[in-house]
Specification:
Number of strands: 7
Order of helices and strands: HEHEEEEEEHH
Helix content: 25-40%
Radius of gyration: 24 Å
Strand content: 25-35%
Largest sheet: 5 strands, mixed, barrel
Length: 162
C-alpha cells in the first residue's frame, strides 16, 4: 500500500512537471510571433543592396547623411536626404520634426520601410547626440563598407577594438 502511494505521488509530480513544461512551451510559441512583429532589423545602404528586406518590412537604416543631399519639400515638413555608408547610398524621405542635431556629414538612424522604387520612407529619425558618438550599428556598417572616412568615424566612436 505504501509503495502504491509513493508511485501515485511520483506520477502526480510527473504530470504536473509535464503540464508546467507544456505551459512554458505554449507561452513561448505565443510570444515568438508577437516579438517578430516588433523586431526591426538594422541595415546600412550596402546591406540593402546585397540583401534587401521583405517588401513592407519595418527596418532601421543607418549611416552618414551625405554632404549636399539634404533638401526640404514645399510643405516645409518633408525632408529628403541621402544616407551613405561610403560604398552605397539610399535616398530617404521623412515627414515630421527633425532632431536638432540632424545635419550633413553626421550619423543618423531612420526607422521605416523600403519602397518599391528603392527609396526609404522614414517614420522616425534619430541623430547622434554629441560630436564623438555614433550608434554602434552605424560604425560597424561603415567599417564593413570601408567607405571614405569610415576609419575616422570608427576611431571617434572607439569601435576599432570591436
Amino acid at each position: 500500500m505504501a509503495a502504491e502511494v509513493r508511485r501515485s505521488a511520483r506520477n502526480q509530480r510527473l504530470v504536473l512537471a509535464g503540464l508546467a513544461l507544456a505551459a512554458v512551451v505554449g507561452a513561448g510559441l505565443l510570444a515568438i510571433p508577437a516579438l517578430e512583429d516588433k523586431a526591426t532589423f538594422f541595415y546600412a545602404p550596402s546591406d540593402l543592396a546585397a540583401n534587401p528586406p521583405a517588401p513592407g518590412a519595418r527596418i532601421r537604416l543607418g549611416g552618414l547623411v551625405k554632404d549636399g543631399s539634404v533638401s526640404r519639400e514645399n510643405d516645409g515638413l518633408t525632408l529628403v536626404f541621402t544616407v551613405t555608408d561610403g560604398a552605397r547610398e539610399t535616398r530617404v524621405r521623412y515627414t515630421g520634426l527633425v532632431p536638432d542635431l540632424f545635419r550633413e556629414g553626421q550619423g543618423v538612424v531612420a526607422t521605416g520601410r523600403l519602397g518599391p522604387d528603392g527609396g526609404f520612407a522614414a517614420e522616425e529619425l534619430l541623430a547622434k547626440h554629441d560630436e564623438t558618438y555614433m550608434p554602434p550599428e552605424v560604425a560597424k556598417s561603415l567599417g564593413r563598407a570601408g567607405g571614405a572616412g569610415a576609419a575616422g568615424a570608427m576611431h571617434r566612436t572607439g569601435s576599432l577594438s570591436e
